[in-house]
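G.,

No rush on this.
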Amino acid sequence: MTTALVTCPNCGATNRIPAAVAGHPRCGKCRQDLPWIVAAGDADFAAIAEQSSVPALVDFWAAWCGPCRMVSPVLDRLARERAGRVKLVKVDVDTSPALSRRFDVQAIPTMLVIIDGTVVARQAGAPPAAALRSWLDEALAARNEGSRR
C-alpha cells in the first residue's frame, strides 16, 4: 500500500498519508482534516475504496482521455473542499482492467460513490463542475439520511 505526502492547506505542514487507514487523515501539526486523494488498482482497490472509513469518490480515468483531464481538477477540488468527508480514489483503466470490467465501465471518465462497500451513485462523462458538485452532495446526503434512520 502506498503513502503520499500532502501539504496541509491550513498550516503548510507536510504530512504522510497512507492510502488506507481507519478514520481519516488529519494534519499532525494543526489537526485540521486533510484532503485524501489516492490511486488504486486491481490489487488494492478493496482495501482503499470498498473498506474506506469515509465515502469513496472513485474516478475511472485514462491518461489519453481528454474529458478525464478536464474532470480531474474538479474532482481534486471537491476532495479538498470535503476533506475528512470523502476520499478521492483514482483508477487508471489501462492498468486496472479487472476493475473496469467489474464495475462495467463503458465510458470514461466514470465516477462512482462507494459507501460501506456499496456503489450508491454513478456518473459517466464530463459534466460541468456545478453538476458534479451537486451529484456528489446528493450521494453524500443520501448516506447521511440513511444513517439517521
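When you get to it, here's the other one too:
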Amino acid sequence: MLIGLTALTVSGCASPFKAAKVDPSSPIAEATLAAARHKGRRPSFADIPAVPTDVRGPARIKAVVEAEQRAAAKLRRDAAPETFQLTDTEGYAARARAAAKAPDFGAPTDADRAETEAFAAAARGRASAPSPQPK
C-alpha cells in the first residue's frame, strides 16, 4: 500500500520516461529539442578503463605516511621550547649590531661635490623646456 502511494506521488513529479516540456520562445529551444532527440552511443563494459598499474599500493602509502609523521615529530622536537635558551643576549645583540652596521663611506670631498655639480650642469644643458602646444 505504502509503495503504491509513493509510486503514485512520485509519478506526478518527474519521470525519466517522458520528455520535458521546452519553452518554444527560448533562444535554445531548437537546440535543446535536437539534443533530446539525438540517441547517443550506449557505453559498454569494454569502455571501462583498465586498472592502473602506477598507483601506490597500501604498503607504499603506509610508508610515505609514516615518513611524513617521523618528519613532523622531528620538526616538533627541533622547535620545542626546551631546545634553546635565552642566554648571552648582550653578546648576541653586539654581534647583530656588528653584522648590520653599514660601512663608512665617509663624507663627500670637494672633488666629489665638484663632480656632482658638473654632472648637474651638463644635465641642465641637455634639458629642454616642454613644448607649449599639446600634441
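The mean pLDDT is 83. Residues 76 and 118 are 62 Å apart (CA to CA).

Enjoy the weekend,
O.
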